[in-house]
Amino acid sequence: MEKAALRRENFKRLRALTSEAKSEQSAAIVKQLLNEPSFQSARTVFAYAAMTSEPDLDSLRLLSPDKRWGLSRVGQDGESLRFREVSPGQKLVRSEFGFLEPDPESSPIISNPDLILVPGVGFDPKTMARLGRGKGHYDRYLAPLMENEPIPTVIGVCFSVQLISLIPERHDVPMTHLVCENGRH
Q1: 67-126: pLDDT as tens digits
Q2: Are 166 and 120 in contact (CB under 8 A)?
């Protein structure tokens, strides 16, 4: 199945999840991540502010104030992805693209993560391939990080309904592993 069709199918599955189910599953994902060795040892964690179709990790930041946190922000060019430092309870702003992100006026760009928590539309637990939203932001950001030492751990974070079979393309950066509400894959 082509990527556009896979995206449509997975968005349909995600829309079928109630808000209550997403909240419960997000809480279970946070619990899984708190017990994840790579999370426990990480000093700098990059994550995202959840869209309605993504697991909400806000409580993970609140439960782990000892870590240095960076949240993703799309550049003004609409192509680049950067991570900006945020404190655990920091307010986010609505971007010109319509989603919540760190305020560039008060959140400096940071680098050198130990762990990156990556959202997506779908993930393959066998190949560790990720199906994104189609803009390539994460693949472009992650590719150069995989060429230098130390290589950060990259965890795909998803609801179990997002687990699908994918054939990776040459430019796709595989996840180290996946975490969803029912465990690690």
Answers
A1: 999 988 776 666 678 888 998 778 888 877 677 888 888 888 888 999 999 999 899 999
A2: no
Residue found under tokens 């017990």 = 35
Residue 31 backbone phi and psi in degrees, to 5: -60, -45
- From CA 32, how far away is CA 156, in angstroms rounded? 13
Tens digits of per-residue pLDDT, 47-60? 988 888 899 999 99
Question: Within a 13 Å sphere around the CA of 66, how many CA atoms are in the beta-carbon half?
Answer: 6
Place of tokens 């509400």: 181
Please state the three-class secondary structure of the chain as a single string: CCHHHHHHHHHHHHHHCCHHHHHHHHHHHHHHHHCCHHHHHCCEEEECCCCCCCCCCHHHHHHCCCCEEEEEEECCCCCCEEEEEECCCCCCEECCCCCEECCCCCCCECCCCCEEEECCCEECCCCCCEECCCCCHHHHHHHHHCCCCCCCEEEEECCHHHECCCCCCCCCCCCCEEEECCEEC
- CA separation for the pair 170, 58 (Å, rounded): 33
CATH, range 3-184: 3.40.50.10420
Residues, the chain, total? 185
Distance CA 69, CA 96 (A): 23
- Contact call for residues 128 and 177 (beta carbons, < 8 A): yes
